[in-house]
UniProtKB/TrEMBL annotation:
SMART domains linked: Lactamase_B
Signal peptide: 1-22
Keyword list, A-Z: Hydrolase, Metal-binding, Signal, Zinc
Nucleotide-binding in keyword set: no
Protein name from the UniProt record: Subclass B3 metallo-beta-lactamase
Amino acid sequence: MLKFKNIFLVCLAFFISISAFSQNVKEPSGTPKEWSAGYTPFRIAGNLYYVGTYDLACYLITTTKGNILINTGLSSSAALIKKNIEQLGFKFSDTKILLTTQAHYDHMGAIAEVKRLTGAKFMVDEGDASVLKDGGKSDYALGGKESSYAPIIADKLLKNNDVITLGNFSIKMLHHPGHTKGSCSFIFSTLDKNRSYKVLIANMPSIVTEKNFEDVKEYPEIAKDYAYTFKSMKMLNFDIWLASHASQFNLHQKHKPTDGYHPEVFVDRNGYLQALNELEKAFKQKLKNRK
């Protein structure tokens, strides 16, 4: 009995320390205000909802056995996301699985806190597992002396094309490295009373390092990974596409807080390909800069 009591106290101390760490984390200077500004949550299509900030996209997927939350924004955004989920009529405590599109502070800053509050299982692309353990300090582009989010160990590591199932719902993870070693997208189908939509939540492969690729010693495969990701993403088929940032898929041009339910505004393959092509141009220019 004493042994179990000691284990309980150790676990309790761990969760308290994580909570304190999350509350004391300071985002890097220059963090855009749009990343923490509020935005009215809304239903995108079927069982998919937007619960993020003005620019940091967070997605709630509801199922018969609880809900899936993809991304959490900044470390200070846990309360905002909780409010958004509850405003839609769902219970925050019903969050059972946590996912992220990349291990940067602007998308998973509140993961540890949400996990502590809900008990959800955190699953991540295996490429980002190591950088999560030190809270982003070892990230090749945004790393430094201090953690930019609470360190966390994933409950499950995911590989390319792994399928996550919860209740009556399944979602596939797609490995799209480059932006981080474990950047990933998610693809799934959702159904409303009118039709079924195939949805892609894309992690757009923007370049975050100022160094030439050959100078990124922490990530020698970076150029190869970017090339793979652009090729892979151009081959995807879907109806609706979304992204890690609202600005990347022009959310605010497609949707207003006063709008009703209009999934069709997010059917925009041309916009997706245009965005990819622009990013690929930047990638190819980076390659030209090689010594």
